[in-house]
Amino acid sequence: MLRPTVIAIPFFALMIAAEAWWHLRKNDGEYKDRKDTWGNIFLGFGSVVFGALFGFLTGWIYIYSYEIAPFKFPAEAWYTWVLLFFADDFLYYVFHRVSHESRLFWNFHVVHHSSEEYNLSVAVRQSWFSGILHWIFYAPLMLLGFAPWMFATMHGFNLIYQFWIHTKVIYKFPAWFEYIFNTPSHHRVHHGVNEPYLDKNYAGVLIIWDRMFGSFIEETETPRYGIIKPIKSYNPLWINTHGWFEMWQAMRERKGMVNKLRCVFASPNMT
Fold first, then answer.
1. C-beta of residue 173 within 8 angstroms of C-beta of residue 183
2. I need a surface site. Which of 40, 71, 80, 111 has the fewest CB within 10 A?
3. The pTM is what?
């Protein structure tokens, strides 16, 4: 089946064009770096292609996991979809947090954060190779009895929700909405490299996970975007691989197997 995010590509394109037109009309400096914008779009298309290739592997893993599940949730039951929504969104929080706190997974996720801009085109700036490992976080849903097609549908809509929060156009929503849901304000914080903002606000749809697990912070100052060590490159292959070269160099510089393994699994900010 086609993933919801693939079906939504025309919608993404229309929204990016509309936002770019809005900013260019205001002449506020956004979307002036056209190499970044087109680079984001190219990275997005690349992630679709590689995602389809890795999808054969992850699809087999998900199907097998579902087949051996001792219980199967009925697709026609409303409570199945409610449970799946919360389970999928919570596992996205876990996946996203690990992607910042473990260098192995950060090497994939850094692609998304390496842009120094913040607009809707950044939403589609995704790693080409994350499909190699991201199934680790979601296969348990199939083992619990959720059908792979149900997961693909729910997870797709989770990701579509996250598209529109990559914007500066919207400042804040009413307090009740900001308290429950991930919003542009919360996600701007997540992309910020300001010291208070580092490794905060990992939510997908519900910001309540960050509030529950101590990773939430309000937007109180204008974020500066990008990563701590900017890559200063528009080369899509280097954007996708520079983290691995840096990890390898760090491993070579450290003595002892334990220290080398820390370079792989510990925080990407370790010294």
1. yes
2. 71
3. 0.95
